[in-house]
Amino acid sequence: MIVHRNYDWINQGQENDIAILILKEKILQKNGIEYARLPTYEFDGEFFVSIYGWGDVAEGGPSSYILLKTTMKTMTTSDCAKRRNLACLSENECKVICATSVDTGDCDGDSGGPVVFHDGTVVGIITERINTNHPMDEKKPRQKRIFLRTFSYRNFISFHELRHFQKSFLRYTSELIIKSSNRDHIKPSNVGRIINGRNVSITEVPYLVQILKDSNNSIPICGGILIAPTKVITAAHCVYDSDKKSFEERLYIRYGTPLAFWSLLPVIPVSRIVVHRNYDWINEISINDIAILILKNEISQAYRVDYARLPTYEFDGEFSVSIYGWGDVAEGGPPSYFLLKTTMETMSTSDCAKMLYPGCLSENECKIICAVSTDSGDGKGDSGGPVVFHDGTVVGMITVKVWTNDSMEEEEPWQERIFLRTFSYKKFIDFRELNHPQKFLDT
Fold first, then answer.
1. CA–CA distance from 419 to each of 150, 316, 324, 331, 437 (Å)?
2. Which among 8, 87, 283, 306 counts the fewest CB atoms within 10 Å?
3. What is the mean predicted confidence (pLDDT) over 145-168?
């Protein structure tokens, strides 16, 4: 470890807050890993920069488990010098970048991360946090931030200068581990699509749970919808084993997290599986592809945890719906490690009936929702997740994947998708009906 010789490590000031870590092993440029591009000339002016990190997502925590990004606007060095920071005493002697933002900034744990210009050049490094208030009257107080200017330390960063004016703290080397793999507790930044979707918080769908095959931190096999303290609905094909001959021996529920591998809350075992009696589990067709999981322990409503609102009347027409899940982000995988969301457009039941899909033989007898999209959809592993109307009502559930091509000539082919219509199964979902048309399995 090599620390700048003029860094004030006792008071932890912003000036010269830079160190170099020499790694025991090489990190090669492959599998999405590249070396940073540092500036070859001085960047100065008012422009937007992006900052990245896994630090606290709010004052006081908690920290983020996925890489986050925000944007701030820099000041000119002349304006920065007016702040009389020790590292920027004049316009010609300014080793920091001053930046402002109304409502964003970095938090504890982001230090050492990059400050990136729009062309990808790393013009700065996140250093010690400073919260200051500008004396000018603002409608909103600005957050001010000082970043280390990488160009000012180009000689220190150059390897051939290391023998001259730095300190080496080799005793710390064994305590530091550099994680280069893009699978170490984060989702790769170039992977993030529920087939063209985006990352969302679990607070957007606090009733969405993960179905696991074991109680360890495994990747979910399907999603599920929490509708009561001990009741989850999911796709029926999710509860069968790989041979499609019987139920999974054990199932567990993980909840209250957007991550596909971890939660602060304990997993809950499933005590009973209830499958619709008319589900064709051999052929896995989309009709009646619904099951109820009875949980061994109750899940109470809390922060990030709530029960889904199911429809009280029939939704019909052409409207946008959102789908959520941790399934494959592209055809053939890999799965997502963070909750993703995308949007599709539904068809009317009359148009859906014209497709002659099982489950929608006529406009008045349609138990599915037909949806279309040109570039998005759900992937393998999203089954059991919610299909949500704009008011938050769970109008459908993701079931068996069906891809078809419309016979009409289009500039680009439509992806067609069938979702189970939750309103059509309201009697099955109702607790009072559990002793009639279903199969039971106590686990």
1. 52, 13, 13, 19, 22
2. 283
3. 69
Asked if 212 and 229 count as a contact pair (C-beta separation under 8 A), the reply is no
In this predicted structure, the answer to whether residue 184 has a pLDDT above a threshold of 50 is no
* pLDDT-derived band at 252, boundaries 50, 70, 90: very high
Distance CA 357, CA 133 (A): 62
Structure-token pair, residue 266:
């304990």
Cα separation, 309 vs 253, whole angstroms: 19
Q: What is the Cα–Cα distance from 291 to 274, expressed in whole angstroms?
A: 5
Task: Provide the mean pLDDT of the chain.
Answer: 77
Instruction: Say how far apart CA 75 and CA 143 lie, in whole Å.
Output: 13
Is residue 273 pLDDT above 50, yes or no?
yes
Question: Looking at beta carbons, which pairs linking 390-395 to residues 24 or more positions away fall under 8 Å?
Answer: 390/319, 390/320, 390/322, 392/309, 393/309, 393/310, 393/311, 393/315, 394/207, 394/225, 394/308, 394/309, 394/310, 394/311, 394/422, 395/311, 395/315, 395/321, 395/369, 395/421, 395/422, 395/423
Largest Cα–Cα distance of the chain, in whole Å? 82
CB neighbour list of residue 369: distance below 8 Å, 6 or more residues apart: 321, 346, 347, 352, 387, 395, 396, 418, 419, 420, 421
Q: Which of 195, 161, 239 is nearest to 334 (CA)?
A: 195
| Cα distances (Å, whole numbers) of residue 410 to 30, 347, 374, 406 | 39, 17, 10, 8
Q: Which of 323, 35, 366, 296 is CA-nearest to residue 193?
A: 323
Q: Which residues contact 393 (CB under 8 A, 6 or more apart)?
A: 309, 310, 311, 315
| Cα(99)–Cα(7) distance, integer angstroms | 22
List domains and CATH numbers for the chain. Answer: 2-175 (2.40.10.10), 198-438 (2.40.10.10)
* Residue entry with tokens 């509860």: 239
Tokens of 217: 């931190």
| pTM listed for this prediction | 0.56
417, 372 contact by CB (below 8 A): yes
